[in-house]
Amino acid sequence: MDKKLEFNEDHKEVLRELMNVAYGSATAVIAEILDAFATLHVPKIELFNVTELRNYIIGKMEDDAFLCSQGINGKIAGESIFILNRSSMKNISKYFDLDDSATDDDLNDIATELTNILSSTTVGKLAEQVDSMVAFSPPSVHIVNKVSIKDDLKMKDYSQAIVISTSIEFEEEHIYGDLILFMQDDSIVWIKEKLDVIIEEYL
Amino acid sequence: MKILVVDDSRLARSTIIKTLKEEIGEDNEVIEAENGQIAVEKYEKDRPELVFLDLTMPIMDGFEALKQIKAIDDKAYVVVVSADVQEHAVEKVMSYGAIMHVQKPINAKKMQEIFKTVKFLLKVESK
Q: Is there a contact between B104 and A21 if contact means CB atoms under 8 Å apart?
């Protein structure tokens, strides 16, 4: 990989804390919507290339999953992907008074709304912390499985992905989700410069 | 003043310490801890006058650390500095005896507010 696009351990450490703050804000908004208390866990931040990411996702997938994507424009340009297994999606739907008869359309609607809130709040808060702003395109959702993910997850425009892996426990309901952030190469170079400034000042 | 700064992130601890120095002064003694368990041990040993405490940490989270610190000293001044800004989380830490809940990241204005509150509480306590 091009050296310019590589994150060192200090970059990862700073990014982890920035994402932790950003993800905390997003979870609070979702908890308010669901009227439930979420237990936050320390998120894992990992950087993957395309092949590693596919293998990682397939390894975590159950039978099928809801893949929700949203475009990001600004200095941080790219795409955010939120992946929720069907069992987690079913658990979320209970907060919307839907029972086991909820259709895929019902679940798609909920996934769209949650993705919009989660990814825009997380990425928006990340941008704010590095003195920037971003705009978002409307999210889209489709159901994927371990076979179709190879075609459904389009990563040809990106060298690597930042994966924020966390479980959110909403009281008794366990909901696991991975938020994946794809940044265009120019944005990676830009955010690395911003991280270097923070490292220089604080670490 | 002896101050304990508790966070698993080096960046978060460093941000608090730097802001503390810039806004409040250099003459504080700062102790650091990277999780709740170490924080409780250091609190017991060093008895700091003020604690900055994160919530989401490995090994022992801030909720449990706050409970244990307050069990050691019910007059402990603990300021929770966290990304967890859910209403329920704020209510929980206040019910456990934190003096404030502040959203991360900390900045000059927030630090000034914290010390205004601490000074007020110390004044009330001394009367």
A: yes
